Amino acid sequence: MAGHTGQKYTDLWKHQVMRENFSVIRPQIVENFVQRLLENYQDGGLEITFRKDHLEACLLSLGCDVMARERSNFESYSMCYEHVLEHARQKLCQKEQELDIIRRGHSPPEDKAGQIAELSHNMIMEVTALRTRLMDLEEETLDLKKQIRKEVQEEYEALVQALFVTCLHIKAQLLKELDHRVTQEALHRQQLDLMKIASMEKLLEDVEQQEQHLQLLTEEAKRASKLGQLQQKKIQGELRQVTPVRGSKSGCTSHSCFIFPLSFPCLSCIHSGVPHLCHSQKQQENGNIYTWVIVQAACDER
């Protein structure tokens, strides 16, 4: 309803006459299409060339403008028809009320009838205005709900996206930490294995060296034992060959003595085994001087 957009709907009953003004705004579809089309062209003198994508974009915009105009016309004409039908319905209700009053035979005075008609008309207009206001409020509420739902959905999608990205980041960090830990454990186990192998090799080498050393000592002990046995047998054999000489041969007239040359190989053993050394003498034969050691026999000591 034109002329009353800035006033309250409850104040409409104060106006005596309510006018319905309906006018359709002429859309400048052709002018806009030509203006968009001429924004990008090539002038060849006698002919004008347009790019295919530019022409398609202009045609798409033209189709959108035509659909918008048709929608606007549909809404405008629908509102106009609704207002006309509402006005006709109000008139019909008013006439029905007047006929009902006349049929009942309770015809009020003229002044009261005019007041009642005016009050009825004002009440109808006020109810209509309130109904229109209610419809506008419902539309605003619906638009507000849609907007709130859209904002909440966008925020929810943003939160879900951020949560998903955070989960992926945490997962990547956990996988990286797990790989690092597995690598460290593998290196630690490898180092332990290497240390064990080195310790075992060193232990085996030590055992082998000890066995070799023990074997050498055993062989040396065996050789020393064999050598000692051989020397003992040799000494015993030489001792068996020695005979006691008494008197002038040994140079001793009071004992039965053994004569050994000074170069006898076991003289040191005789010195240590026979404590009774009698005397020594020298003898020259063929221009050589020989030294003899005369050892007292053990039987003479008895």
TrEMBL record:
Residues 127-162, 197-227 form a coiled coil. It comes from the Eukaryota. InterPro entries: CCDC162. Keywords: Coiled coil. This is Coiled-coil domain-containing protein 162-like isoform X1.
